Amino acid sequence: MNTEFIYQKDADNIVTVTMDMNGPVNAINDGFIAALKETLDRLEQEPDLAGVIITSAKKTFVAGGDLNELIAAQPGQEEGVFTRTQMIKSLFRRIEKLSAPSVAAINGAALGGGLELALSCNCRIAVNHRSVQLGLPEVGLGLLPGGGGIVRLTSLIGFQKAFPYLMDGKKINAEKALSEGFIHALAADQTALLATAKNWIINNAAGSEGASQPWDRKGFRIPGGNESSPGMSQQIAMASAALFKKTRGLLPAPEFILNTMVEVLRVDFDTALTIESRQFSQLVTRPEAKNMINAFFFQMNQVAGGKSRPKIAEKHTVKKLGVLGGGMMGQGIAMVAAQVGIEVVIKDVSIESAAKAKAYAENGFAKLVAKGRMTAEDASRALARIKLSVDVADLQGCDFIIEAVFENIELKHALVKEAETMLADGGVWASNTSTLPITRIAAASSKPENFIGMHFFSPVDRMPLLEIICGEQTSDETLAKAFDLAKQLRKMPIVVNDAPGFYTSRTISTPIQEAAQLIAEGVDAVRIENVGKSVGWPVGPLALQDEVSQKLSLDIIDAQIAMGLRKPEDDPTPQGTALMRCLLNEHGRGGRVHGGGYYEYSESGKAIWSKLKALYFKEGVDSAISDADIRDRLLFRPVIESLVCLQDGVLRSVADGNIGAIMGIGAPSWTGGYLQFVNTYGLERFAERCTTLAEAYGERFRAPAIVADKIAEGANFN
């Protein structure tokens, strides 16, 4: 007899099944399946059964499927995946077919398989607490809900309402779940939850309408209608067009989900369940699914769990933070720090400048209040934590000071010398820089072991990644404190070693440089943008360069040359760099903020600058280069740069590289990160393609030695 599903029958013949699997959560694995099967066997033999309550002894209801099993599935094993999926579905279907009504008493998160189990019950009641989340987020892992989630949710609330929950993996709280029709009632706490569930069973005895699933009742109609209903074909067509615009055909999971949703509108319920299983089994062995599971679950958990944090037991909490500079980055840092309860001092050259930073936070908090993500009282308290100053003495006693001024090493050195003594004993100085070497900036510090880089991404209050950079003398204690602050600020921290541009900045610049090189060679700019977007980047590389600004990119190059960090003759794309200098110096095209770059901008939108083609386009060159070569030139550059960063020790782990690429610099999610892309492409095939590109377009495409090393080891980048 299983001991992981606690079976309790009361005097009213109501059985409460409390799931309590070994381990921290209830996961749908072999043990769970065996326990559920045994429980159903017993319930189906239970005399005078009045009803069943399914609940959890864990903080979560059910966490979902075992991703270790899913990522292990290989091409050719689809039939086995299908059979297993159908078997799990048959158990959920048995819950629906019990002789007595069933209630899911949801005490914590019910995501993925957890919600699919709950949807199999006749009634769903949830504790009204912030820990309760409901949703089907499988699409974010490159999968689809395989336990009946697509079929049941579409049948329950209709195609139109179910679409964003299935396509975007939206998670909702208990109150929203009630208003959207996911659940039937709310309860104040665990005691009230079970009492409400029992009362519902008493009021919905076997044979009553509530004791059966809607789709099992005669005359059932899906809300909003089936495929032949008026207007439904138009809804489907619009959904398909919107989906392709969003994914560009690069993510199979959303397409599979939409296909299954349409089938739900066409066929009977049980046939739809079978179709869903078939779609799931075809999807789970796809490389995109494996890449996304690896990145968004396993490696994300590694990074968030502190794999790169030194093994120092004491956790550090920042109480007072100094922010030097109230510009775009400083104001965002101040806002997120105040929001999590940290006292913040913004020091700038004038109170007026610092006040602009506080106004940014005030506006940001107001938006959060309007969206229901923050109360007005919490916003007021957070704003009150931000103090404005022009006096360095106001920084006295700061646990952390983050310098967030523009990229000028002399200015940064001056600030270190002026304000470093204001730090509390053991306090940390951090520079928010995207390109300047931390070791060089730390040269002005009297305590370089307490000096570190913290590269935030703009806008700070919305971008989740934080790149922590260790200088040559940064201590483990300082790194641990910076990591803890990142978590305190609710950021995803990756840790890298010092180098010009670190990891993210030097990598994001490579497709931009390659795009400039392609234009200089004579390739049409519009074609470059279209091919670039087909890779899966949010915007084309030329549009991205305009946002970054050609002037800033050239300023960084010139600053690194002046500091001896790079040599002009080592430029991998000299024609592209010369093109940018020409556009800036001769045509005033310095980027969007400077009035235009590759694009010209107007109230009606943007278009490639009309004179660009006349200046650079060469029809013979353009036609000689294939779309495949353009695509690989743009994509392989950041992949190769990521490999170089790993080889040179800038990246400390593959997980940091993949998560940094996806969350910081827009690596397409289907790749699983630029390092994971090599695994999926195949290391030998990748090396061969690099050789072909290098022979045609230059040594910058030569595969780094680390690829040959991995091939010799018979290993991947893990």
From TrEMBL:
An annotated GO BP: fatty acid beta-oxidation
Pathway: Lipid metabolism; fatty acid beta-oxidation
Occurrences of domain 3-hydroxyacyl-CoA dehydrogenase NAD binding (ranges): 320-498
Catalytic activity annotation: a (3S)-3-hydroxyacyl-CoA + NAD(+) = a 3-oxoacyl-CoA + NADH + H(+)
UniProt KW keywords: Fatty acid metabolism, Lipid degradation, Lipid metabolism, Lyase, Multifunctional enzyme, NAD, Oxidoreductase
Ranges where the 3-hydroxyacyl-CoA dehydrogenase C-terminal domain occurs: 501-601
Listed GO MF terms: enoyl-CoA hydratase activity; long-chain (3S)-3-hydroxyacyl-CoA dehydrogenase (NAD+) activity; NAD+ binding
SUPFAM superfamilies for the chain: 6-phosphogluconate dehydrogenase C-terminal domain-like, ClpP/crotonase, NAD(P)-binding Rossmann-fold domains
InterPro entries: 3-OHacyl-CoA_DH_NAD-bd, 3HC_DH_C, 6-PGluconate_DH-like_C_sf, ClpP/crotonase-like_dom_sf, Enoyl-CoA_hydra/iso, FA_oxidation_alpha_subunit, NAD(P)-bd_dom_sf
Domain of life: Bacteria
Family: In the central section; belongs to the 3-hydroxyacyl-CoA dehydrogenase family.
Protein name per Swiss-Prot or TrEMBL: 3-hydroxyacyl-CoA dehydrogenase
Record lineage: Bacteria, Pseudomonadati, Pseudomonadota, Gammaproteobacteria, Cellvibrionales
